[in-house]
């Protein structure tokens, strides 16, 4: 290119009208699949775990990295981010496998990110649920 003109990101030069409307003649645009799949019914999946029945009750949560906390469930969202109050962290010292020791640390109010949670269980026992992977006959 002569004269030090700037290259346009879509392939044309910055001056003139050549290529100014390039790529805009496609009626589908960038959306892709307009009008397809609208009649498909999406199956509504029931959640396997419903944290609302444990609101204001004590639960135990295991987190990635080996941490374990117990606290009162105060809130949650669809990503299973949870808010616990009166949290106590149980710290296990596994350096000596013959004499494992536990100590507890009182934390208070905690927000746990859903992606870091491995296990959530009530402290007063657990409920049996139907296996969601078994096909109904």
Briefly summarize what is shown:
This is U6 snRNP-associated protein Lsm7. It contains no helices and five strands.
Characterize the structure shown.
The protein has 137 residues and is mainly beta. The chain is 0% helix and 33% strand. The chain is built from no helices and five strands. The N and C termini lie far apart (71 Å). 5% of the residues are buried.
Question: How is this fold's topology laid out?
Answer:
Layout: E1 58-63, E2 68-76, E3 82-93, E4 101-112, E5 117-122
Antiparallel strand pairs: 1-2, 1-5, 2-3, 3-4
Protein name: U6 snRNP-associated protein Lsm7
Pfam family, one: LSM
GO cellular component, one term: U6 snRNP
Summarize the helix and strand pattern as letters: EEEEE
Low-pLDDT ranges: none
Please state roughly what percent of the residues sit in beta strands, choosing from under 5%, 5-15%, 15-25%, 25-35%, 35-45% or over 45%: 25-35%
Broad shape: globular
Family: Belongs to the snRNP Sm proteins family.
Domain Sm: 46-126
Organism: Coemansia javaensis
Biased composition (Basic and acidic residues): 36-55
Keywords summarizing the entry:
five-stranded antiparallel sheet; SH3 type barrels; globular; 137 residues; mainly beta; 5 strands
